[in-house]
Write a structure and sequence with these properties.
By secondary structure, the protein is α+β, with helices and mostly antiparallel strands. Helices cover about 25% and strands about 50% of the residues. It has one helix at about 65-85; strands at about 5-10, 15-25, 30-40, 40-45, 50-55, 55-60. This is Putative septation protein SpoVG.
Length: about 90
């Protein structure tokens, strides 16, 4: 499965949430609402989730293995950097 499009939908300079992203796979399947978050150890992606209990969240869609997550992060962060350069 190939990532065929990454769209940075919202850029936020303030706060911990830096952007909201949509990723298209094989020009056939899209995942919306992936968030780029600034944590204590740098940027990371948070997959779309829903609240299941008071305070608990469960991912709706997510990579199955570390290799896929790393590839997804690399591509998303590359597009995020491009969007930041364009905005400034």
């Amino acid at each position: 499965m190939n990532i065929t499009n990454v769209r940075i939908r919202k850029l936020n300079e303030a706060g911990k949430m830096k952007a909201i992203v949509s990723v298209t796979f094989d020009n056939a399947f899209v995942v919306h609402d992936i968030k780029i978050i600034e944590g204590q150890n740098g940027l990371f992606i948070a997959m779309p989730s829903k609240r299941i209990n008071e305070g608990d969240y469960k991912d709706i869609a997510h990579p199955i293995n570390a290799e896929t997550r790393a590839k997804l992060e690399e591509i998303i962060f590359t597009e995020y950097e491009k969007a930041l350069e364009k905005a400034n």
